[in-house]
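seq as requested:
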Amino acid sequence: MRPTSLRNAADCDCLTPGPLTGAELSTLEQGDLMNRFTRLALLSAGLLIAPMQSALGQVSKEVDDFLAVAGSLGNNAPVYEGTTFEKGMQAYELLRWKDARGFFETAARGGNGDAQFYLGMMYLNGEGGEESAQEALKWLRQAARKKVPEAENLLGVMFADGNGVTADPAEAARWFRLAADRGYGIGQQNLGSMYLDGTGVPKDEREAARLYRLAAEQNIPSAQSLLAELYMAGVGVAKDMVQAAKWLLLAGNAGDEEAFFFLESLLEDGTLSEEQVEKASAEADAWLEARDE
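struct tokens:
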């Protein structure tokens, strides 16, 4: 689907809270705006890494697809094929948490970094067995030693939230930076939020915008929506409503349905003109075409 109009929102799950309204943007103090960005980004990271993200950081199927396949199996045990880790992924995608955890634990103990990440994440979320932040921390650290960026990012989230560890913004930023430097989009987004708020790192709005853009260029809808809000507010970038509309269109196209609704509200209240949206739509189409080449 190309973002050619405001009326073509896809039937998709929205993974992030809705953006600020035009009125909120005009009345919020800048400090409140920065804090909101940080909360949104960290929340988005938690949603995007669980429960469906593959070891390569790609969403392999929609939740409904998982449930449909799992339901079709009834009480019949599925046949898993491939390596132990691959069997774990098959079980995970079928929402058979106990099977998945068993396979991942075997592969993790054998030194598979991706399995260590998944096992740590499952302990953190309590999937397939007990919930244990300490076990999660142990396995995520092992995965991080193998330079698995998803594990580095999740460790950053744990230190940012104080989940199983003493909250430490500087340590959170360190882990986010490791993931970001490996090109991991959610790590780039989270590090950007730290710079935006001056949490764990010196406040630097331009660096925040740069990092959000790197993540947005990977077609991550939460980063695209956040970058749009920076353009609307003129934070870290020159205020540009056409660019704001472009990134909201792209976020909606990538799965953030709220971005379409927000954009339509901006058009209805006069914050955006039809001419601006038409120009933004053309730029969004060009961006998608270039990405597909």
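The CA atoms of residues 49 and 64 lie 17 Å apart.
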